[in-house]
Design a protein that fits this description.
Layout: E1 2-4, E2 10-14, H1 17-20, H2 33-40, H3 57-71, E3 75-79, H4 82-85, E4 86-88, E5 93-94, H5 96-111, E6 115-119, H6 127-133, H7 139-156, E7 162-167, H8 171-178, H9 189-212, E8 222-228, E9 232-234, H10 239-262, H11 267-275, H12 284-292, E10 297-301, E11 306-309, E12 328-329, E13 337-338, E14 343-344, H13 348-360, E15 366-370, H14 391-409, E16 414-420, E17 439-442, E18 448-451, H15 453-464, E19 466-468
Parallel strand pairs: 2-3, 2-16, 3-6, 6-7, 7-8, 8-10, 9-11, 10-15, 15-16
Antiparallel strand pairs: 1-19, 4-5, 11-12, 13-14, 17-18
Helix pairs in contact: 3-5, 7-9, 8-9, 9-10, 9-12, 13-14
């Protein structure tokens, strides 16, 4: 069966500054928080690879943009490394070398027919702001971020028509501040929730800035936020399991979606924080700013569903509160798995979330900004021409796309599909262990680029405007 792409549908890929650029051009004091995480414990990163060289996009962006053109890529979403870009956080003064680099990248994308989509923060919080102010725990950092955003808009706003304030803003608060599994290895739910709130506030302030000043908004530009969200499926329809799923949804989806799209936090959110002695710093003035300055577009990073059930045991009173107080995770029998990442593959979840956006969030315009499959040991699947035969990735993308097109056919306001990633890339702690790209980064051959079978499939799909799909074999035999 043939599945046709909608007219003007953006087929492309996503990346991040820190996962591609490397440290080239950086000077002392320009570490991001993720750079500091690597320097603090490089032994935790797979085979010691970190963001030092990454894919060397800093030097090879022209080569990569030409390859995007060859593949027929319509859009590329990446980020600006805040720690590289801003010279003086107090004033918002720009590092001129960085300004030249990002100017050149945007121009090169456009020259090659690729729509540049820019995210202002993909975990590149300057480490100086973490060490001096506590990072996103501080509202002073919110003010620094607004100055940074204004500098970025002034530099690129005449050419960049799609902006996002944050990518997966919940990840660092969850894994680094609340769960203690990423640097700086803290375990403080109250502080994590302050990070989340301050990022919502920062988003609203930057949306206000973008809407009020002539940085591209009045000529059709859009600004939003990218969240890593998924439907929360209860184990059963029992009241306790449904409540567990609702609480998971509250803490991991709605605390960003509701204020950014609807202008208000869920009514029960602050009362729950108070109940558990985790209430954060919030003012009426800030809530009004959030209410009046909502996003134009949303990015969705979807990898796997959330499956939860009611807890089997009571919460240990000697352990600080966390959202896990309300749920346990649930493993679905017979689920399709990506064994390398340890994640369930459930393409229909993309359709289900599209329907949530349509029915509960005003059918806001949105993009799939990440969706992909990380696989270890892909070098074992090369043909005689050294091309990785990643048919499993083609199946993965096509399966998700066919559910996405079903949602669009039913009225979902989705504008494009950007896979993670254009090339293989460095991931936090997993480094280059699991490969995600349409294009191989050959670490044994000077990081040279080579399209995989999936890259050729992407090219053919964009050229023809459709892909064929009847049924899928298991993703990985």
């Amino acid at each position: 069966m043939k599945y046709y792409l909608p007219k003007d549908f953006m087929m492309g890929a996503s990346a991040a500054a820190w996962q591609t650029e490397g440290w080239a051009g950086k000077t002392a004091g320009q570490d991001s928080l993720i750079d500091a995480a690597y320097k603090f414990s490089p032994e935790r990163w797979h085979q010691g690879y970190g963001p030092t060289i990454a894919t060397d996009f800093y030097h090879r962006y022209k080569e990569d943009c030409a390859l995007m053109k060859e593949m027929g890529m319509k859009a590329y979403r990446t980020s600006i490394d805040w720690s590289r870009f801003i010279k003086d956080y107090e004033t918002g003064e720009v590092n001129e070398e960085a300004a030249v680099f990002y100017n050149n990248v945007v121009d090169e994308l456009i020259k090659n027919g690729v729509e540049p989509i820019i995210c202002l923060e993909h975990w590149e919080l300057p480490n100086q702001l973490f060490e001096k102010y506590g990072g996103w725990n501080s509202k002073k950092v919110v003010d620094f971020y607004v100055k940074y955003a204004e500098a970025a808009f002034k530099l690129l706003g005449d050419r960049v028509k799609y902006w996002f304030t944050f990518n997966e803003p919940i990840v660092f608060p969850e894994l680094a501040i609340m769960e203690g599994v990423w640097y700086p290895y803290k375990s403080d739910t109250k502080e994590a929730m302050q990070w989340n709130y301050n990022k919502v506030l920062a988003t609203a302030k930057v949306v206000k800035l973008y809407h009020e000043k002539e940085y591209g908004y009045k000529s059709g530009g859009k600004i939003g936020i990218i969240i890593n969200a998924a439907p929360s499926y209860p184990r059963s329809q029992s009241a306790d399991d449904v409540h567990a799923a609702n609480m998971y949804d509250l803490f991991f989806n709605k605390i960003y979606m509701d204020p950014c799209i609807k202008g208000e936090f869920p009514k029960e959110y602050f009362s729950i924080l108070k109940e558990h002695d985790c209430m954060i710093s919030v003012t009426d003035e800030e809530l009004e700013i959030i209410k009046e300055n909502r996003i134009d577009i949303m990015g969705l990073n979807y990898y796997r569903p959330n499956r939860v059930k009611a807890r089997n045991a009571g919460w240990n009173p000697n352990v600080k509160f966390s959202p896990r107080y309300y749920y346990d995770e649930y493993e679905l029998q017979g689920k399709k798995m990506n064994p390398f990442r340890g994640w369930e593959i459930y393409a229909k979840g993309l359709y289900d979330f599209a329907m949530i956006l349509k029915q509960e969030y005003n059918n806001l315009p949105w993009l799939v900004t990440e969706n992909g499959m990380g696989v270890e040991g892909e070098w074992q699947h090369k043909d005689e021409n050294k091309i990785i035969q990643d048919a499993y990735r083609i199946d993965f993308v096509a399966d998700h796309l066919h559910w996405l097109l079903k949602a669009i056919g039913e009225g979902s306001n989705c504008k494009g599909y950007l896979m993670w990633n254009f090339t293989d890339n460095v991931s936090p702690y997993n480094a280059f262990k699991n490969r995600y790209g349409y294009v191989e980064i050959d670490l044994d051959d000077n990081r040279n680029r080579r399209m995989k079978k999936s890259g050729y499939w992407f090219k053919e799909t964009v050229q023809s405007g459709y892909f064929e799909y009847d049924s899928f074999e298991p993703i990985y035999k």
